[in-house]
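Continuing the series of single-chain predictions for the mutant panel. This is the parent chain; the variants come on the following pages.
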Amino acid sequence: MRKIDQLLSEYGESHQNATNKTIHWICVPLIFFSIVGLIASIPSGIVQSFLGDGNPYANWATVTLIVVTAYYVSLSIPLSIGMVLFAIVCLFAARMISALNIAPLWMVSIIVFVLAWIGQFYGHKVEGKKPSFFKDVQFLLIGPAWLMHFIYKKLGIPY
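Parent structure:
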């Protein structure tokens, strides 16, 4: 069995309840986005000088997502493509929130992060099982891939 199949299967063991699954479809992408937003909020002078001044995506979030993409590529190239597309959407959304200037990106990200984790823990209470990342921290990255693999299955795309 491929490592990605093993990880997705193990992650799925604590995500059987329909309510918990629905909550995950909402909260996992929000948590991913909020982390991108928080990391994008870190001052990035050194990154901008390396990736180009004036480039709005020359920030620590982009650097972090490159590393995260390498992890996904090591598991599944097709899934990593989907995750890169989702990461680009998150970077763009973070940029738009910053541009709207309604509230600082870091503040929006923290609020989204806290509310989404409250949802996650409620889902696991309903499920009656602890979140997978308590067993292994890499499951924090498997959660988004687990959702992506369902999209791939629905579209008939092998992962």
